[in-house]
Design goal:
alpha+beta, Aminopeptidase, 6 helices
């Protein structure tokens, strides 16, 4: 099973659950409380819209425990000074990897939090999660040609441009090395 939480220097990245997605969709007044974080004024960001939330909820419901961690993740900025723990972005995978180990990654950062390298940190955490599963060998991501910030985030995380897809979006890919098993390292 994929780990359902990871930490980066400034973020806690939490896998979406059915409860969180249900609150986000149907009881938005309870969503920040359940999440334990303040919401940005422009939530939800980018392509993370109601249809995406419904898709992730449907996949988590149909897939049960095996689906956990293979869809949406929430990026929570850790509390610092007068700034409370705050939801700053979302990202994740479109599902488990295929038979060849290929998985697709996506992400979005709320407008109020862009330009602080939080997208780079979020994607690094998601790459770490993919490696931790031992199942992902390659990651692919797509972005519109005009989205220079997303392109920089992907390049900073070891993705390379691989041309365009059939929709005219830029395609980026990177290899994923499985994380070393800490039990095996202790034996070495």
């Amino acid at each position: 099973m994929i780990p359902l939480i990871t930490q980066t220097p400034r973020l806690q990245i939490l896998a979406a659950s059915r409860a969180l997605l249900t609150a986000e969709l149907h009881k938005p007044q309870y969503f920040p409380t359940l999440l334990g974080a303040a919401l940005p004024t422009d939530w939800p960001p980018g392509d993370y819209d109601r249809a995406a939330m419904e898709y992730f909820l449907e996949k988590l419901t149909a897939g049960g425990r095996d689906a956990a961690g293979w869809y949406n993740w929430y990026a929570l900025r850790k509390a610092e000074g007068d700034t409370p723990r705050t939801l700053v972005g979302t990202g994740g995978f479109t599902g488990p990897p295929d038979a060849a180990g290929l998985a697709e990654l996506g992400f979005a950062i709320a407008a109020d939090w862009r330009g602080q390298d939080l997208g780079t940190e979020l994607v690094a955490g998601l790459v770490q999660q993919a490696a931790a599963t031992g199942m992902v060998r390659r990651l692919v991501a797509h972005t519109p040609p005009e989205n220079l910030l997303s392109q920089r985030v992907l390049l900073a995380n070891g993705f390379a441009s691989e041309g365009t897809d059939f929709n005219g979006r830029l395609r980026f890919e990177r290899a994923v090395e499985p994380a070393a098993d800490p039990k095996l390292q202790a034996l070495g």
